[in-house]
């Protein structure tokens, strides 16, 4: 089992390093990429760097980005190198199987079903900082039973753990949580018992008498409206919550107040949304300190949300500077107050773990965030103040500092309880789960992108690598690398006994395959293929992969004498070459019983061209304008020479984005721009 380690390494000398392959039990786990260790970045790479001014990826990854270099000055000591290194699990000391002797039945063991067993991390905020680790335990339903925190100097210290029990509906019934005390020993900060009416949480009682986790021990009754929305949470000082027609909170009243001659003015938050539920404004009215009794009104802080740009205005507190605060960037955000690019380091769930920037001497960490499994932030050691105006943390969502909830878009999440306060708007698609449960109670593997339903994804990276894990939905979600675009493919045979159905996307198979580079482009190191029976689905997946990566993909349709047919999608991660299953495995490659390449007819072969030049099939000359190109035969190069299918197409990303259709049909004699398949 391979282990992935990420880290910020500091200065960058401007040289590209070599990726070393590994052999484990006779198998090549990581293929080496032949890159001279002292080769400077190419002119093309440096031009790309100057164009975007944020990040350049010099080496293609194996499953994720291998290296990133931030900053503008090649050779500068202030350059930031973010590296991903790969090692073999047996070469890294394993964690304790029983990290907490109070729970000897909860053992941390390797998982082979997509669940994560351990996560390690270490940061440079303290030169003598510990190697830290979480080990995870799951029940028979793949729900997280416990997350046990360890550090290398005391792996059984019992700090920062969470342990959960559930009812049959997936509602948490008990939660234990610990932290470190000032004396350096662990302290139980939460020993929560949840009481329900149906799936609605009615009370939470805490027998720990420690207020650092859940802030109250009294167990006040929680109210709900007719739609199942939580209307108060007095344990946390929330007296009332009202909702709009989309079940989004538009007003929250708190118990904190300002005393005046005319009475008490209570703190409150108001939200304004677009008609489709996108948040436009948050207005927080809060009580100032009033030692002389001279303040007669609440201070106001207004946050405006404009397509990622975040503004603040307000009244009262004079030391606050109001105006444009920040705008998000691909790798973090730009801080307009300090005129700095701030880079965010995120984990596999999108949790923002570090925020950092480059100063005159190197890397300076602005903020560090480490989280309990269900999202509460660790307190007691990651104490950097960070940027008080940037509150995007767990899952990359905005923390509402007034209420302690995270805004996911469709719902607000309560990390101290590990559940939502509002019914899932898509509850009918997850009938086996409580509509208030977060991420199928497996927050280490699943995320909930917008509060409507947890997702497990088939992610297609820019370099063509594909990452897939099992999910619990009646459809497959396919995303691009940064998850900004996605499609959903319905599953078949969904029944009462098979509620998640059968995926139409076959097993994704990847094998090591060294292919030399051509025409100045990098070669390939692996070959990926998967089968899709339905032609329309195969075309949809092929086009999505072609439009959202920087490498070529191929779709082939094979027919058989019994009237059946099937489709294969392949890539070998190169910008100017893609191979098919027949090229690699030969005529004996078997699709299903009695069906192989040898007894099939290839009725279609489509492959993508990711670049604008050439967007047409090789072996032809482009004679027309890009809006309506025409082609004449040229030298018999690869595409023209290998047009062996009944129908052959190039799918051009450039033409598709320009004209709304990217298909060019060709054979050995000619080529025609058809926009769509014909």
From TrEMBL:
InterPro entries: DUF6266, Rhs_assc_core, T6SS_VgrG/RHS. It comes from the Bacteria. This is RHS repeat-associated core domain-containing protein.
């Amino acid at each position: 089992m391979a282990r992935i380690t990420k880290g910020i390494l500091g200065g960058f000398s401007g040289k590209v390093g070599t990726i070393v392959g590994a052999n484990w039990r006779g198998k090549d786990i990581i293929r080496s990429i032949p890159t001279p260790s002292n080769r400077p970045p190419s002119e093309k790479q440096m031009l790309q760097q100057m164009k975007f001014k944020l990040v350049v990826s010099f080496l293609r990854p194996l499953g994720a980005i291998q290296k990133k270099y931030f900053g503008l000055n090649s050779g500068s000591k202030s350059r930031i190198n973010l590296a991903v290194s790969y090692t073999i699990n047996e070469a890294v000391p394993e964690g304790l199987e029983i990290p907490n002797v109070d729970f000897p039945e909860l053992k941390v063991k390797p998982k082979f079903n997509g669940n994560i067993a351990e996560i390690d991390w270490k940061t440079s905020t303290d030169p003598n900082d510990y190697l830290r680790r979480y080990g995870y335990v799951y029940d028979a339903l793949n729900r997280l039973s416990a997350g046990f925190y360890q550090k290398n100097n005391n792996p059984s210290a019992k700090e920062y753990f969470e342990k959960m029990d559930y009812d049959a509906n997936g509602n948490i019934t008990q939660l234990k949580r610990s932290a470190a005390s000032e004396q350096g020993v662990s302290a139980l900060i939460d020993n929560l018992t949840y009481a329900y009416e149906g799936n609605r949480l009615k009370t939470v009682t805490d027998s720990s008498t420690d207020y650092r986790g859940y802030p109250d021990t009294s167990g006040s009754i929680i109210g709900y409206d007719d739609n199942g929305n939580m209307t108060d949470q007095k344990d946390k000082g929330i007296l009332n919550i009202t909702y709009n027609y989309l079940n989004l909170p538009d007003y929250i009243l708190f118990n904190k107040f300002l005393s005046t001659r005319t009475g008490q003015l209570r703190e409150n938050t108001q939200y304004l949304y677009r008609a489709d539920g996108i948040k436009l404004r948050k207005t927080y009215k809060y009580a100032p300190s009033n030692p002389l009794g001279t303040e007669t009104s609440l201070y106001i802080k207004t946050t405006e949300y404009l397509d990622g740009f975040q503004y603040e205005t307000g009244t009262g507190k004079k030391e606050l500077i109001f105006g444009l605060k920040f705008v998000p960037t691909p790798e973090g955000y730009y801080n307009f107050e300090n005129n700095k690019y701030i880079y965010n380091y995120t984990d596999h769930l999108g949790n923002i773990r570090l925020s950092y920037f480059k100063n005159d001497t190197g890397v300076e960490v602005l903020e560090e965030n480490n989280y309990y499994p269900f999202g509460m932030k660790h307190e007691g050691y990651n104490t950097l103040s960070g940027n008080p105006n940037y509150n995007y943390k767990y899952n990359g969502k905005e923390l509402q500092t007034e209420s302690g909830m995270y805004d996911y878009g469709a719902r607000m999440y309560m990390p101290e309880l590990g559940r939502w306060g509002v019914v899932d708007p898509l509850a009918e698609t997850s009938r086996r789960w409580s509509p208030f449960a977060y991420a199928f109670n497996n927050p280490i593997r699943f995320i909930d992108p917008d509060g409507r339903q947890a997702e497990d994804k088939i992610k297609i990276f820019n370099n063509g690598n594909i990452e897939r894990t099992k999910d619990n939905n009646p459809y497959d979600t396919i995303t691009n690398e940064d998850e900004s675009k996605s499609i959903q493919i319905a599953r078949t045979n969904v029944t009462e006994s098979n509620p998640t159905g059968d995926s139409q996307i076959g097993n994704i198979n990847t094998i090591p395959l060294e292919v030399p580079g051509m025409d100045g482009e990098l070669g390939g190191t692996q070959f990926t293929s998967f089968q899709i029976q339905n032609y329309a689905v195969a075309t949809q997946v092929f086009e999505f992969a072609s439009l959202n990566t920087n490498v070529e993909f191929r779709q082939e349709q094979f027919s058989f004498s019994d009237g059946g047919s099937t489709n294969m999608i392949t890539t070998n991660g190169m910008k100017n070459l893609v191979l098919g299953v027949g090229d690699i495995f030969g005529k004996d490659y078997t699709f299903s019983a009695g069906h192989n390449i040898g007894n099939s007819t290839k009725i279609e072969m489509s492959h993508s061209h990711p670049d604008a030049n050439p967007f047409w099939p090789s072996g032809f000359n482009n004679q027309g304008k890009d809006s309506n190109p025409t082609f004449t035969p040229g030298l018999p190069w690869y595409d023209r020479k290998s047009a062996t299918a009944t129908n052959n197409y190039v799918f051009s990303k450039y033409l598709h984005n320009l004209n709304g259709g990217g298909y060019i049909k060709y054979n050995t004699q000619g080529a025609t721009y058809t926009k769509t398949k014909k």
